[in-house]
Amino acid sequence: MPLSRLLRAAALAPLLLSPAFAATTDPSTLHIANTEPGNYLAAIVASADRDTDAAGLYFREALRADPRNLDLIERAFAATLANGEAKDAYGLADRLAARDPGNSLARLALATRAFGNGQYAGARAQLAAGEAGKARDVTSLLLTAWAYAGAGDLRRALQSVDRIADPGVAVFRDYHAALIADALGDPTEALRRYKLAYAKDPATLRLVDAYARFLARRKDIAGAKKIYADFSARSPNHPVVRAALAEVDSGKPIAPVVANARQGAAEALYGLGGAGTRQGDELASLIYLRLALALRPDHDFAEVSVANLLADMKRGGDAIEAYLAVPKTSPLAESALIQAAIEYDGQQKTDKGLEILRQVVIDHPDDPDAWSALGTLQRSAKDFESAAKSYDKAITALGQPDKAHWVLFYFRGICFERTKRWPMAEADFKEALRLFPDEPLVLNYLGYSWVDQGVNLDEAFKMLRRAVELKPTDGYIVDSLGWAHFKLGHYDEATKTLERAVELKPADPVVNDHLGDSYWRVGRQTEAHFQWNHARDFGPDPDDLKKVLEKIKDGLPATPPGPAAATPPSPEPSKNGG
What we know:
Elements: H1 9-12, H2 36-48, H3 52-65, H4 70-82, H5 86-99, H6 104-116, H7 120-129, H8 131-135, H9 138-150, H10 154-162, H11 170-183, H12 187-200, H13 205-217, H14 221-234, H15 239-250, H16 261-279, H17 282-295, H18 300-312, H19 316-324, H20 333-346, H21 350-363, H22 368-380, H23 384-398, H24 406-418, H25 422-435, H26 440-453, H27 457-470, H28 475-487, H29 491-504, H30 509-521, H31 525-537, H32 542-554
Helix pairs in contact: 2-3, 3-4, 4-5, 5-6, 6-7, 6-17, 7-9, 9-10, 9-11, 9-16, 10-11, 11-12, 11-16, 12-13, 13-14, 13-15, 16-17, 16-18, 17-18, 18-19, 19-20, 20-21, 20-22, 21-22, 22-23, 23-24, 24-25, 25-26, 26-27, 26-28, 27-28, 28-29, 29-30, 30-31, 31-32
């Protein structure tokens, strides 16, 4: 059952009006209107942009003027809850449940509040009152089970969990049954359920960590370490696993993933939020995750999930706030700081990102991910000299590189090429291809560079054609092949290829500029000026703009120049290597 089924369509309809996502709203820029219609319209616009902060504020202001309007209560409640303002959302949920007793989202919020207050019978009553409770869906059954666990009733708790019949969530069911049995002191049942869940899914970190911690608390240290080792074979060097192994080796008492019913309910909400993210139910996921954090503010996995979700929704400022809220004691804190820095870079605040990352590498000087992230932001700032040094540190920290590390050599190669150290750049590109022989970005960059220098031409064109075969819809790679033909005077072939590149990237200034040059060389001067005008209007870099304006004025020289010193494929490769 899709998680969004729990959420009344009317409550989320205003939040789903548009696929466009807004950046975070600065509260100081919000202006409350003097009329209810003005605030309502502002709320609708904010909702269409998925700006839950502004939407919640404007809907609440509209509600002041019409406090009994059920539609406004519902909309204000959904936006406020999605924005993580639990206290205000609970008050709106009371009002909504009084007017619409079967509203499942309101009942879920009120059940969450009851868990937070230790009122487990009250939580069960709220869950039973909602329409979802009558359908006995996964959310209601899991939280009802944890409510029984809060009252110390293991039998009824497990009965509730076992009413979840959907085989698609069997792992989730057995995982929570194990957590409940563990929390209520039945290690035999807990072990049985952990084994069932783990046998079906040994690759989910949260389950792995809970199972291994259970074994360690039962003095099965070897078993716990094997669980972690098997996970590490799939995902090496995960910070959570490193921290857990250090905890096991310390000889100190091992904390369980879930110690009580409140934490168990938070864990259930966190898991449901993560499942919704995978299903594409972004707002439903955000609400579940916010409720999880309302019960357990130190749930680092939930906080990171919220941050990731906000980043995906293009709400960079909110994402940064969430990343920075991850507890500094969490094993996830370092990676959260790295992501916050990357978000700052995406907001054109690279200096702030660099400030964070410089401190991260001081605190974690042997972490290749930290050095790689610092190199990426330095490269974004066009500080290629410093970026190359950071990639040096990352590669040194790796030890023995494998296929996944091709991108470090690729990016360091770009930095070497931009700082006029071609032999070192060429060596790095070749090493990247040794690690990942068919990576189209590397084939494109190295092949183009060779053509531009007039060396290894047969191999270079094979590389470029192979790159296009691998990514035929990548306009930048198609542009590289066309521009390589142009550089060697193959103007007819260049024109055909560059026309395809422009079809794929119609708004890119460099691709349009290249096609204009090619049109000029085949005698299509009018069309050349048309493409150069496009290139000018699409916002090229200042140096490129100057050249484009000269071509619009004077055209190209009658005699094509010889190959220039190596210029990079256009445009600058993206920060994620794709």
